[in-house]
Amino acid sequence: MSTSPEIAFPRHAVIIGTGAVGLMSAIHALDQGLQVTLLDFNEAGSQEASSYGNAGWLSSHSVIPPVEPGMWKKVPGYLVDPLGPLSIRWRYLPRLTPWLVRNLASARRDRIRTTARALRTLVADARSLHLEVAQRAGVAHLIDTSGVLHVYRSRRHFDNDAFGWGVRRELGIQWQEVEGAALREREPDLDPAFGFAVQVDEAGHCRNPGAYLQALQAYALARGACRVEGRATGFRVESGRLKAVLTEHGELACDAAVICAGARSKALAAAAGDHVQLESERGYHAVIGGHEHAARARTPMMVSEFKIIATQMETGLRIAGQVEFASFEAAPDWRRGEIMRDIALKLFPGLPRTLPAEDVKYWLGRRPSTPDGMPCIGPASASGDIIHAYGHGHIGLGCSARTGRIVAQLLAGQAPEIDLAPFSPQRF
């Protein structure tokens, strides 16, 4: 692994990718006095960007990786159920197998505890870190600080998740139980079949991730960042020092770069000397609008039974979830979006049973996921001038604020505020 080179200022950093991680990195790099160029082929917050359509959670308790003990027993069932909560397209299975084997191997209780301890350092204070930046960008109204719910049919169903909640308790995460009439009062539109929930007060959510990212980019540009439209294809490194980012339109001279291109980061990581295990973990959402005064989720809620999150956004009720493994370019399977819609109808009986097509919008995004559930953050092997910052999987928005701070610290030659060893890009 390359050691960080001696840094001379002013330094020009190219931020590759304008998702949540890229924009937070840019803002904090500007705070450090760096010259910043944003490089992307999509507009920040556009529907083509994966940061646009997530569930909006800023959940500092999201420390349990998506795998669970005994997960391997369920994979055969998932393979034969194309509309289950996890789907793998058969043609993609050979390419996915090395990632999947390592992913299932990480589903041991000791490994999950180790992962949770590391992730907690990254997501702690997510809500307050986002609120601070949102206030500076003039969009504090987009950050809600009133907590989130995890909803179950009964206490018995909650007890089935005892291992994960026990790990959270070990890390100091607290919650309050809400059940029966108290839950009905809090969420009157929720199906009464769900009678138990836990409220995590330290969490929050973003009311409109797309608008939030647009505002963050506008704030960065107003402070002096530049934006270049295009795709990064590699790097020109001489004697361990970065000289330029290579793009489809030619070289972009700089002396530092950050790879935060989400699920597209794998090829850039290889160009920077590191072969990471990164897959495009596709997720879908359905947004139901046009019925603002019908049924709604008053508090963002994770419903473990369906493996989805329901969040009331500025644009409507968003139901987000599903895991689909397929090639990056594979066509969407919009039946998965329709599953999200149908789950919404089950959870909120007050919604119209027949929704007009114009009131339901479907979306597909691609999470950048590593097999061990932890992102890649740190210097590249080819040059310490290149920083990896991707692979946050299901918790990219929540992690982005602290990741951006860490990236800026690395760019400025400072010690990062948390231990980055668990997130080493060279661990694969």
TrEMBL record:
SUPFAM superfamilies tied to this protein: FAD-linked reductases, C-terminal domain, FAD/NAD(P)-binding domain
A single GO molecular function term of this UniProt record: oxidoreductase activity
Domain FAD dependent oxidoreductase: 13-410
GO CC annotation: cytoplasm
Record flagged with keyword GTP-binding: no
Keyword presence, Nuclease: no
Pfam families: DAO
Record keywords, A-Z: Oxidoreductase
Protein name: Amino acid dehydrogenase
